[in-house]
Amino acid sequence: MRPGHGDIELAGLCKSYDGITNVVDGVNLKIPDRAYCCFLGPSGCGKTTILRMIAGHEDPTAGEIVIGGENVLGLAPVERRTAMMFQSYALFPHLTVRDNIAFALRVRGQSRLERYKAVDLMMEKVRLTELADRLPANLSGGQQQRVALARAAITEPRVLLLDEPLSALDEQLRVQMRQELRRMQRELGITFVHVTHTQLEAIALADIVVVMEKGKIKQSGPARDVYAYPRDRYVAEFLGGQNIFSGKVEQVGSDHLVISQPHRTGIHVGVQADRRVGIGDRIDLAVRRDDIELMRATSGEPGGGATALPGRVLAIEYQGSFVKVMLDTIPDEEFIAYVPERTFFQDPFNVGDVLLATWSAGRARILA
Amino acid sequence: MSRKNWFAWLYVTPLMLVLVPFFLVPILVVLVASVLETDGFGGLIPTFTLANYVDVLTSAQTFHLYSATLKFTTLTWLFTLVIGFLVAYFLVFHVKNQLLAISLFLICTVPFWTSNIIRMISWIPLLGKEGLVNSALLGTGLIREPIEVLLYSGIAVVIAYVHQLTIFMVVPIFNSMARIDKRVVEAAVDSGASRLDVMRLIIIPMSKSGIALGSIFVVSIVMGDFFVVKVMSGGGSASVVSAFYENVGVLQYPIAAASAVLLTVVLIVAISLILRTVNIRREITQ
């Protein structure tokens, strides 16, 4: 059996533990073969439950799971040819690294010689050869993760399911192991489904990001689409990097709308083909924090079509490659501008300065 | 002595206050008594002799007693292990409700709510010639004559021991099983392990320390007991301890002491064999 045909289709997937509330509530999703897919959401949003249902550790209350064109409901994990990497790894504490990785082959009845040959190859791949005879308790977090990965991959699954694989590691290692995961995914040439609550991890790794809330998919698509074009307020807030505020439509022009707010007026937004709005509608807007330009209030008005809102600097945080400037531009909402480091230090602002925050109409987006 | 040393001694004092008078001194008394001669009326004559050991070790009776005791020990160990393991497994892996698990656990301790004597007497109406078991079997027509070996026999001794000691298996095995991460079991299933594989390759090896601890309890209690054997066998069987109980009864202290020392040595060997299979220190400090 070769890997391949690891495309996954979830149709109307529901899971309820108490028969009243759905933990997973009608999820429809297609994950292509050999994709790296990340489920992103806060804890309790149902992402791990979906993973466990794909793995076959839990049965859906309703809906279908199709892997490689075959309905896998009721099949054991091995028959599905999925493998799972558990949160905090769940390594067998009484077995050495070698026997941990060899476990799946052992229960398949392979002889010791046969399985150790396969395991030695795998250990080389994930650079564990020198640690072969250690027990999991004597490994570092990163090493444990590599063992877990090797143990899952030894069965040549067509889908690898990873439950918060990086949450047990410290920050520095997390970035390192993130690359390792991506490398392994490319090398193995199989579908990875990865569950995380860290947006940075999701957008750094995934071909497809699936943002979830309360058992439902809020948005799914390529990482860049989800980050740069969030569909609604929840997605925009969860992925971050956006200033979000609401307002009422005052005018509808041919190429832009004018929106006002209790505290601010004259906010211009480009017309979006997929959003029909009329005068008087209340809508949510998002503007990327790095699309905002700050200028001193005295330096005159910006060009036509741009929005310019005054605001006082509340705080300034140096972030290395950029500077985070917090303003009270929109009262009651967080308003932050990311200013490139070099630009900022040409003419540094101070806390308390009154600035104009400007952006062109096309940069603001209407949220659902 | 330096100040630091004084503190070190101070720390171990409470333990020493218990260990020295209640453990070390009695052991020494027994050891000394075992190499002395007796005047036959309970008095000890301070003359060194190894005759007591020679007597004990060369007596055919010692051999019979040990083989009887070992038989009871092995049977009791086997049954308590199987029952205790299954009960613990059920409580840990099949009872999802914690409150239910705790109540079931308490039910396991029911035998201890009455005294040992009452518990053993209670077997008489159950196992006796006209007891419940026999009348039930007669009633269903499975047997024509009442089975007499149920009571006052080796079977009765083993039944009483198992009844009394299974909890000593359940508790440590439950304890080590409860520490098994459920995800580890899931990971095994994910790798394609069958129920039997999970039991054989995951649960049993990971419960090893509990099994070892429970075995130590059961083996040392059975080997050091004479009361259950005496009552439940109706005097038909004897055990190692019952023999030196008799010796004490006829004031043969040195020979009883020598038997006691021998039993202690045998038990130490048995326990160290059990401990070789598992690193208890690591398991406990984990």
Feature tags:
heterodimer; A: 368 residues; alpha+beta; Rossmann fold; OB fold (Dihydrolipoamide Acetyltransferase, E2P); 2 domains; 6-stranded mixed beta sheet; 5-stranded antiparallel beta sheet; 10 helices; 26% helix; B: 286 residues; mainly alpha; MetI-like fold; two-stranded antiparallel ribbon; 75% helix; globular
Distance between the termini of chain A: 45 Å
Mean of pLDDT of chain B = 87
| Portion in beta strands of chain B | under 5%
The count of helical stretches of chain A stands at: 10
Fourth CATH level, the homologous superfamily of the largest domain in chain A: P-loop containing nucleotide triphosphate hydrolases
The helix-and-strand class of chain B reads: mainly alpha
CATH class of chain B: Mainly Alpha
- How much is the radius of gyration of chain B in Å? 24 Å
Structure write-up:
The complex is a heterodimer of chains A (368) and B (286). Helices cover 26% and strands 34% of the residues of chain A. With 368 residues, chain A is of the alpha+beta class. Chain A has a 6-stranded mixed sheet, with helices on both faces. The two termini of chain A are 45 Å apart. Chain B has a single domain, classed as MetI-like (MetI-like fold, Orthogonal Bundle), CATH 1.10.3720. Chain B contains 14 helices and 2 strands; from the N terminus they run αββααααααααααααα. The longest helix of chain B has 35 residues. The radius of gyration of chain B is 24 Å and the shape is globular. Classes of the chains: A alpha+beta (368), B mainly alpha (286). At the A-B interface, helix 3 of A face helix 8 and helix 9 of B.
Topology readout:
The complex is a heterodimer of chains A (368) and B (286).
Chain A: E1 8-15, E2 24-31, E3 36-40, H1 47-55, E4 62-67, E5 70-71, H2 77-80, E6 82-85, H3 97-107, H4 112-125, H5 141-153, E7 159-163, H6 171-188, E8 191-196, H7 199-205, E9 208-213, E10 216-222, H8 223-228, H9 233-239, E11 242-252, E12 256-260, E13 267-270, E14 282-288, E15 293-296, E16 306-318, E17 322-327, E18 335-340, H10 341-346, E19 354-360, E20 364-367
Parallel strand pairs in A: 3-8, 3-9, 6-7, 7-8
Antiparallel strand pairs in A: 1-2, 1-4, 4-5, 9-10, 11-12, 11-14, 12-13, 14-20, 15-19, 16-17, 16-19, 17-18
Chain B: H1 3-34, E1 37-38, E2 44-45, H2 51-58, H3 60-94, H4 98-108, H5 116-127, H6 132-140, H7 154-178, H8 182-190, H9 195-206, H10 208-223, H11 227-232, H12 240-249, H13 253-276, H14 280-285
Antiparallel strand pairs in B: 1-2
Helix pairs in contact in B: 1-13, 2-13, 3-7, 3-10, 7-10, 8-9, 10-13, 12-13
